[in-house]
Amino acid sequence: MNLGRTACTLVIGGVAYRVVSNHLNAANAGPKSRYVWAINPEKCTGCGICETACVRTPSAVKAVNDQKKCSNCVICYGHIINKDIASDRVMSDGERVCKYDAVKRVAHSDDPDGYFFYTIDDKKCTGCGLCVKNCTDKGTHSMFLIIRPDLCLFCNSCNIADKCPENAVEQVYIGSEDDYKGEFGLESY
Ligand code: SF4
Ligand code: SF4
Ligand code: SF4
Predict the structure, then answer these.
(1) d(CA 25, CA 140)
(2) Which ligand 1 atom is nearest residue 132's CA?
(3) Residue 182: inside a domain, yes or no?
């Protein structure tokens, strides 16, 4: 994942829902509005349905980690399962939460008890939600799922919204002023 794409993903992860949630109905969104589907992080439990319910394969849903909320822990609940492991053995012996090893851990210093950055490789993430569930249940709720606007097909009826047990997928309206796809130069794949 290149730096530009990393930045895009983090920006979208941090602001996407907050931007679009200003426009929960067409009347408030202005004459040139169009809708997108978005996941409300306050309702989503990371149940796993997003991975398979999307009409796209892989899903248009990806996990992101909000760096402003992350505690940059030595042991991350979204990264490894065996949290009692010695800090210097996390990378070699840590049992990964993500079956695709999409949650990346990068040390900020040489200290095994130091400060770590966690990011999610969107090329590997399938939107299964397990890292999000663990971070929400035990961590700081910094990891969450988004529907990527550059991947979503904007179906009239989102199949994930139909199946979501929490009613967490909402149709929201954005105008040209909110067109972050153009602003941040997102790529499709
Ligand atoms: S189906 Fe709903 S609750 Fe489950 S992961 Fe998707 S948005 Fe979250
Ligand atoms: S655990 Fe699931 S949601 Fe998290 S990065 Fe891996 S595939 Fe994506
Ligand atoms: S609108 Fe369609 S493409 Fe977009 S997340 Fe829902 S099912 Fe997937």
Answers:
(1) 30
(2) 5
(3) no
Across-strand partners of 39?
Answer: 169
Q: What is the pLDDT of residues 123-153, one digit of tens each?
A: 999 999 999 999 999 888 999 999 998 899 9
| Predicted TM-score (pTM) of this structure | 0.81
Structural domain span for residue 119: 23-176
Q: Are strands 34-39 and 116-120 parallel, antiparallel or unpaired?
A: unpaired
Q: Is position 12 within any domain?
A: no
Helix (H) and strand (E) counts in the chain: 7, 6
Question: 144-155 burial, b if ≥16 CB within 10 A, otherwise e?
Answer: bbbbbbebbeee
Ligand 1 pocket test, pick from 37, 42, 45 with the greatest ligand atom count within 8 Å of Cβ, gives 45
Q: Is residue 169 part of a domain?
A: yes
Beta-carbon contacts of 179 under 8 Å, excluding residues fewer than 6 positions away, are: none
> 51 lies in a domain?
yes
The count of domains in the chain is 1
- Token code pair at residue 158: 């989102």
- Nearest ligand to the CA atom of 97: 2
Q: What is the pLDDT of residues 76-124, one digit of tens each?
A: 999 999 888 999 999 999 999 999 999 999 998 888 999 999 999 999 9
